Amino acid sequence: MSNIPYLRIVIIIFLCGWNSSQAGLPIAKEYQIKSVFLYNFSLFVKWPATAFSSNNAPFNFCILGEDLFKRGIDLAVRNESVNGHASIVKRLNSLKNTKTCQILFISKSEESHLTTILNYLHKHPVLTVSDIDSFVVEQGGMIQFFKRNEKVRLLINPRRVRETGLRISGNLLRIAKIFRQF
Amino acid sequence: MKKQFVIQSILFVLFNLLAFNITFAQETEIEAEEILIEQLKRLGLDELTEVRIFDPEAGLAARKVQRLTNL
Question: pLDDT per position in chain B (71 positions), as tens?
Fold first, then answer.
C-alpha cells in the first residue's frame, strides 16, 4: 500500500519523459519532410560509378512534373555533396535528361505517363521515387511515399533498386515497408 | 496646405512601414524554413518517420465543418 505514491511518481515521470520525447520532434509540412527523405536517400543508397558522366559531374536531385517541394528541396541539399559530387536540384518537364538524374522524384502530375517514364529508365541507375498510389506495387517504381497517421512512410521494392546496380542500405530498409516481388 | 503635407507624410511613413514589415515577414519565413530543414536533417531515419505532418488546410476545413454544424 505504501508503494502506491512511489508508483504514481514513477508513472508521472514516465509520462513526462514520453511526452517530451514526442514533443522533441518538430512538426513540418508534408513536402518539407519528403525533401529531407530525398536528401537521406543520397546517404543510404550507393550509385555505381557509371551513374555519373565524370568524376566532377554533379549529383542530380530531379523533380519531374509539378514541383510541390518548392524551397524545401533546395534547402535540404544546399551545400551538400555525395561522394565528392556536388548536389544540385533539377526541375524537369520532359523525359529528356532524366537519365542524368541520380534521384528522380516523379510528381503526381505525371501519373498518366508513369509507364512510359519507368520503361524509359528501365535498368538505368536512377533511383525512382514518387507519392503516386500504386507506384511500387503496380507500376514497378522503387520507393513510394505514403501517409499513415499524419506521418510520411516509405514503401520500397529492394529488388527493383538492386536490378539497376544501386545498393540500398539495410538501415533504410529497416524503417520502410518492403514490397517483395515474386 | 499644411494639413495636406501632414497627411502625405503620414501616408509615406505608413507605406514604408508596411513595405518593411512585408520584407521582414518574408525573410523570417525563409529563415524559419531553413532552421526547420536543418532540424529535420539532424534526425535519424526512424525519427523522421515519426515527424507529424503540419497541414494548415486540414485545420481550416475542420473549423469550417464545425462552424456549419453549429448553425
Answer: 788 888 888 888 888 877 777 776 677 888 999 999 999 999 999 999 999 999 877 666 655 655 655 55
Sort out which chain B residues have CB atoms less than 8 A from A19's CB and list them: none
* CATH code for the domain of A32: 3.40.50.2300
Distance between alpha carbon A43 and the CA centroid of its chain, in Å? 11
Partner-chain contact B40 A26, CB within 8 Å: yes
Bridge pairing between strands A143-148 and A151-156: antiparallel
| Chain B residues 41-70 with CB within 8 Å of chain A | 41, 43, 45-55
Is residue A9 in a domain? no
To the nearest whole Å, the CA of A32 is away from the closest chain B CA by 7
Report yes or no: A74 at the B interface, CB cutoff 8 Å: no
ipTM beyond 0.90? no
Question: Does B31 contact A at CB distance below 8 Å?
Answer: no
Please check whether residue A16 lies inside any domain of the structure: no
DSSP-derived 3-state class of residue A35: helix
| B43, closest residue in chain A (CA to CA) | A25
Query: Measured between alpha carbons, how far is B5 from A160 in angstroms, rounded to an integer?
Result: 73
Distance CA A151, CA A26 (A): 12
Where in the sequence is the domain holding A123, given as residue range(s)? Answer: 28-178
pTM of the model: 0.79
Residue type, A52: F
- Is B36 in the A-facing interface, judged by CB distances under 8 Å? yes
